[in-house]
């Protein structure tokens, strides 16, 4: 009854995940937090909202309850600092919003970039690109004489499949293995798209492609635009994190992309070596995955199409439209900027 007085509705009907994400309870972005939890739970960036209606209703109710109760707790305890996990899910997002509303310092924690380490951020969430940018520059400027070597180690360890950063997505790939078709593509420009798993950032504000609706739609437009260019060999390397998932993203790739004449799709489960494929590619296209920084480290021409932790570095091209992207891919006279060799190392060091 108290929630009803506060304007909370107990039964919801949302037609799209986008509608859900816009819902607010007072100053708390309850819909975004609930969508984030649902996407992570289902590993699907477009979950069935009717099937998961109970999850959504309970998530919105839980968030509203936490939002109200946490204010009472803060008034009673009056802490100097509130520490919470991650900051984007149903069980912690409302606490973060209350802290911001009451101007109380908070910190978020997450697993770190290396095994047996943790990440701790004051008044920021782990996924803040602005925070990452500031950290990267500060760490680089304060680093010792070994900073280049430390930065290189990040990349060389990934190539060697060293599991020092929780999980290696490439450990099941066969070192040096390339698509059979690469043996018969003389005089063709090899372009490879490395996509991202959409469920990883669907529940986060400010992420995603710059001018496409999402990765899938961007890939489809690129493939259609390159259909008449027989001198280009286009590959799509599906992110290994999508292996064996029966979700909307994989369904789209199977039904809309696989089978197009302009692209050869390398499935998530395929043992083709990501790093060997980077080496054979003239241009690498990414939507924000770490592969973009890895390809730049390898000296490749990189095109970045979406928000990324390393987006401020001087080692790739960011087109402003689909038309500009096509010019970059098709026009052999297009001059890519020279990679600043320090910049990939900054990301590796961070």
Provide a descriptive summary of the structure in words.
The protein has a 5-stranded parallel sheet, sandwiched between helices. A 3-stranded mixed sheet has the order 1-2-3. Helices cover 39% and strands 11% of the residues. It is built from 13 helices and 8 strands. It has helices at residues 2-5, 17-22, 30-42, 53-77, 93-102, 129-142, 147-159, 215-225, 248-257, 274-280, 291-297, 322-330, 342-349, and strands at residues 82-85, 106-111, 118-122, 189-194, 232-237, 263-266, 283-286, 301-304. It is α/β, with parallel strands linked by helices and 350 residues long. Helix 8 links the parallel strand 4 (189-194) and strand 5 (232-237).
Short description:
The chain has 350 residues and is of the alpha/beta class. It has 13 helices and eight strands. The strands form two sheets. Strands 6-5-4-7-8 form a five-stranded parallel beta sheet, with helices on both faces. A three-stranded mixed beta sheet has the order 1-2-3.
């Amino acid at each position: 009854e108290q929630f009803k007085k506060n304007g909370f509705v107990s039964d919801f009907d949302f037609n799209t995940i986008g509608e859900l994400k816009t819902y607010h309870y007072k100053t708390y972005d309850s819909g975004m937090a609930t969508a984030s939890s649902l996407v992570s739970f289902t590993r699907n960036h477009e979950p069935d909202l009717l099937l998961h209606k109970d999850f959504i209703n309970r998530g919105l109710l839980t968030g509203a309850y936490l939002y109200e109760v946490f204010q009472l707790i803060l008034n009673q305890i009056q802490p100097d600092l509130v520490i919470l996990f991650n900051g984007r899910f149903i069980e912690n997002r409302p606490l973060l919003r209350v802290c911001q509303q009451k101007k109380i310092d908070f910190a978020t924690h997450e697993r770190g970039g290396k095994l047996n380490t943790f990440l701790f951020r004051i008044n920021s969430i782990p996924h803040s690109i602005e925070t990452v940018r500031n950290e990267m520059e500060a760490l680089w400027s304060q680093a010792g004489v070994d900073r280049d070597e430390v930065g290189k180690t990040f990349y060389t360890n990934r190539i060697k499949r060293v599991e020092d950063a929780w999980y290696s997505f490439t450990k099941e790939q066969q070192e040096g293995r390339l698509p059979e078709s690469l043996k018969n593509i003389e005089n063709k420009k090899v372009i490879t798209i490395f996509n991202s798993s959409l469920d990883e950032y669907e529940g986060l504000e400010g992420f995603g492609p710059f001018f496409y609706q999402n990765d899938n739609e961007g890939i489809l437009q690129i493939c259609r635009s390159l259909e008449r260019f027989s001198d280009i060999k286009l590959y799509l390397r599906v992110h290994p994190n999508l292996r064996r998932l029966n979700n909307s993203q994989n369904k789209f790739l199977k039904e809309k992309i696989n089978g197009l004449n302009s692209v050869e799709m390398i499935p998530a489960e395929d043992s083709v070596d990501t790093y060997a494929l980077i080496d054979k590619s003239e241009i690498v296209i990414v939507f924000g995955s770490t592969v973009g920084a890895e390809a730049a480290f390898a000296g490749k021409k990189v095109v970045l199409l979406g928000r990324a932790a390393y987006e401020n570095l001087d080692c790739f091209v960011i087109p402003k439209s689909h038309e500009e992207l096509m010019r970059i891919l098709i026009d052999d006279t297009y001059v890519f900027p020279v990679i600043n060799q320090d910049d990939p190392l900054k990301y590796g060091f961070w």
